[in-house]
């Protein structure tokens, strides 16, 4: 708590990364905050086993997609966090992966700062790192890739995004939110000069018991996603490193973490 003017205490907003799934991939700081919080505002990617770590009397507020398929609009989430903090309550804002990787953590931090509310960022293992570890796909490799890029592959604005040079020989491209747009993604990359036989992998539900790792050539990505009925959350990884992964390590990681 912090006193911003006499007699008025504000809470702190903790923007906390919940990692890719399993609770033991949380940072110790994240675990401590989750276990002690009286208010947790979380999104849909946070694994139920992590929410189960909360105090029994904690208030858990989901801002995830509901049956109506709508998430709470971002400005309403910002307003909720700020409102609670101004009322003197500490808020744990729990997000899948890392709050600053496609997590809108930046917007929430700015909203907090604009309202004069203290904000703390607790990093998490982003899906790319979790998927890499669980699938045995090293994102960098001295022989195959010394550049890694993370991009958002969702529909909105996809055609306007300039990905030129992000994928290809010596590079790894990790695409978040690209399941629905897989055909446009493959087309976009090949139009940019990528070889149709460039190896790719799709990692679905990384670091969860139901994880799947699918591999193939770039040109086959749309069919792979369709034939295997790939569902979100999944990452698409493009580059020669995906042809190296040793699937045999995945069960070891899962055994160790579940
Ligand atoms: N802040 C999150 C990303 C949020 S965007 C992070 O750092 O990981 C949501 C996207 O993340 C999903 O559409 C999917 O592409 C990816 N993602 C999140 N969790 C995942 C998981 N367990 N396995 C594979 N992809 C995941």
Automatic annotation (TrEMBL):
GO terms for biological process: methylation; siroheme biosynthetic process. Its EC number is 2.1.1.107. InterPro entries: 4pyrrol_Mease, 4pyrrol_Methylase_sf, 4pyrrole_Mease_sub1, 4pyrrole_Mease_sub2, CobA/CysG_C, Siro_Cobalamin_biosynth, Uropor_MeTrfase_CS. It is an enzyme of class 2 (transferase). Gene3D superfamilies: Cobalt-precorrin-4 Transmethylase, Domain 1, Methyltransferase, Cobalt-precorrin-4 Transmethylase, Domain 2. GO terms for molecular function: uroporphyrin-III C-methyltransferase activity. Pathway: Porphyrin-containing compound metabolism; siroheme biosynthesis; precorrin-2 from uroporphyrinogen III: step 1/1. It comes from the Bacteria. Keywords: Methyltransferase, Porphyrin biosynthesis, S-adenosyl-L-methionine, Transferase. PANTHER family: S-ADENOSYL-L-METHIONINE-DEPENDENT UROPORPHYRINOGEN III METHYLTRANSFERASE, CHLOROPLASTIC, SIROHEME SYNTHASE-RELATED. Belongs to the precorrin methyltransferase family. This is uroporphyrinogen-III C-methyltransferase. It comes from Aurantiacibacter gangjinensis.
